[in-house]
Structures are given as structure tokens and as C-alpha cells.
Amino acid sequence: MSFTSRWGDVYLAAGARAVSVCGDFLAATTLALVLQGAGHGGLAISGLMVAASLPLALLVPVAGRIADRVDSRRVLVVAGFGQALVCLVLAGTDHPVAIIGLVALLACGLAIVQPTLSALLPDMVAERDLAKASGIYQTAGVLGMMVAPALAGVLVGQMGPRLPLLIDAASYLALVVAGLALRTRRHHRGGSVTAAQVPYRVRDDRTLSIMIGVLAASVAAMSSINVLMVFLVRDTLGASTTVYGLVEAAWTAGMLVGTVVFARLPRRLMTVRAVLLTVVVSGVPLLLGASVSVAPWLIPLWIIGGMGNGGTNVLVMVIVASRAPSRSRGRAFAALGSTVQAAGLLGLAAAGPLVDRFDPRVLVASAATLSLIIAVTCLMVVRRETPQPTVDPERVRDSVGA
Predict the structure, then answer these.
(1) CATH number of the structural domain spanning residue 82
(2) pLDDT digit string (tens) for 374-388?
(3) What Pfam family is a match, any one (predicted)?
(4) Helix axes 329-355, 96-120, angle to 10 degrees
(5) Residue 51 to residue 62: CA distance in whole angstroms
(6) Residues 139, 263: Cα–Cα separation, whole Å
(7) CA 16, 21, 24, 25 torsion-angle sign
(8) What is the pLDDT of residues 388-398, one digit of tens each?
(9) How far is it, in rounded angstroms, from Cα 295 to Cα 389?
(10) Which residue of 124, 167, 307, 308 pairs with 9 in a disulfide if CB–CB is 3.0 to 4.6 A?
């Protein structure tokens, strides 16, 4: 039975992702500025960062089961309304403890929405179009990420914090619109086996487990380097805040390019070994960046590193969607997200105390080297991948029109 890709659904889901990601970063940047402007110190800011990340790591069992058991339309509509309501409350809150608690609630919604949308995307397109759809989806997220910090800075500076948070509340309604408008839905009514009865664990797929482990190491390294970069650029290299902003923007710009380029790769080249190679491509510029004498040299290096990062995102989505059974994709994407978020938190937690004791150059080089060693070692371990079926017999049955 043939399956025609629903590109309207892909663009609608990508648009919802762009708006909601922009809203997520808009809220995070706005609230960090609010706490800093009110005189709260690093503890409050770090608490905000932890509140925004920890639920994504802790809720993986719940989020994965919801994505696989519950109608995707219901998940997107309920979560979108819930997150919009939390943002409305945030707009009228100024106590740091209340802000951190509400941000944690927002992150709970995100923990459920992310695997639901990721598991839904492969059901929108035929296998041959999965890479292109993944590229569109990832590009939308990067664009939302690029716009948000600048938008938050302008809005907070000109209008105060309330308007950005109200805009953020409206952005979550994009999920509601997407949930109602998407023709593709995931639900598992009928049949003799339900999603809850399908035994699936990511760790049973050795190759996929290795890939996720390398991703975790890479994310931990990059998270720690994100903290270290302000000290490397501003203190060690003596650059201005403008140069620091350009360096940070260069990585995101590279991600955008990498997402577009890698989405065009032939499907046969999208392997776990390719993912490990893109991790190496991301890590080498970080290692070289620790040795530069002037900050502007970081810009081309960060563009290259970001391209590898963007390619990794596209390849990972295609590979997880291909290797995980259709009925278990929600759990697979939730496990991936949980591992990456936990690694990111570990990197953030490690960087803070270390930067006060060691040279930022040494720390950046050490983090990049560790990530590269793990990636290269795993490249030698992954000799070949388990063959996967080119046609998922459950794709059409699990993807139904509204």
C-alpha cells in the first residue's frame, strides 16, 4: 500500500515548533533578565536553568508512555492550553521561588510535547522523505532559537517583562492550533496489541544506545563550554560583549546551515557512524578554539562546529525514527531527550565550580577532548549497524486522517 507524504502537516508542525521554541527561549531569557534586574544572584539564575531542564530528564517514563498511548491531538491541545495558562500566571509573578516553580511546570509540558511531536513527524511522510521532513522540522527549531534572545532583549528593554511573557503565552497556542489542524494523528485503537504491551527498551538496541551515549557526552561537553565561553572570550581573550554575541550567534548560524545540508544526504548515508562523525566535526573546532589568540578566530570555527551540530540533529531524528518500532517511537524519543537533558545539566553543574579554579582554555580543551575521545572510540566499536526494514508496516495503520 503506497503512502503519500503530507507536506502540509510537516510545515504546520514545523511552524508550531518554531513558534513554541521561540516562546521557550523568549520566556527563559526574559525571566533570567527579570531575576538579574531584581538583584537576585547566581543561585536564582542557576535555579531557573535547572527548573527549565530537570523535568525533561525526570519525566521520560511518563512522557514516552503518553506519546505512545494517548491520541497526539489530545496531547498537543491540552499541553498547549496548559502552558499558555502557566505563562499568563508568570506574567503577573515576581517572586523568585514562584517563578522557578512555574518554569518547572512549563518544562513538564515541554517534556510531554517534544516526544509526541517527534514521534508524529515520521508518520506524516513516506520513508524516502523522512530526511527532508526532519531537516524542515529541525530548521524551524533553530530559527525559533535564533530569534528569541534578541527579541527578548528588545522587548524587555523597551516594554518591560510582561509583554514578552504574554507573547510567550500566545506562542503556546500554536500547539493547540497544530493539534487541531494536523490531519496526521497517532493513536493505537484497535488491534490485538497495545503500545503498553509492546516490550521496547532503547538499551536493547546496542548501536542506538552507543549513539545516544556519544550524544550525551557531546552535549555535556558543549553545555559546560557554553558556561566557559563568556570567561574565555571576555577575560582570557579580552574581547567585547559584541564579539561574544557574534561568537554565540556563529554556532547557531552554523546549525542552520548544517541542518539544510545534511537533510539532503542520501538516505543510505544516514547511519549511526555518520552521527559519530558529525560529533567529531562539532568537537574539533571546540578543541581548536581553546588555542586561538584573538576572539574573532572563534567565529569561523564555531560556524563549522555548528554545522556538525545541525547535521547531528537531523541524522539522529531519522535514525531513531527508523530503528524504533512505530508504536514505541514516543518512548524512544523521550529516552533520547531525557539522556541529552541529563547530560546537559551535568555539564552545566560541572562548569560553574571548575571555572573558578582553572584556566578557561584548559577547561574548554579538556571538555572537547573528552567528547572527541568518546566519539572516535565508539566509531571503532560500531563496525556495522543492524539492518532495519525499509518499510514500516505500521506506518499507514498508525497514521490516520482526522
Answers:
(1) 1.20.1250.20
(2) 888 888 877 654 444
(3) MFS_1
(4) 140
(5) 18
(6) 10
(7) negative
(8) 444 444 444 44
(9) 48
(10) 124
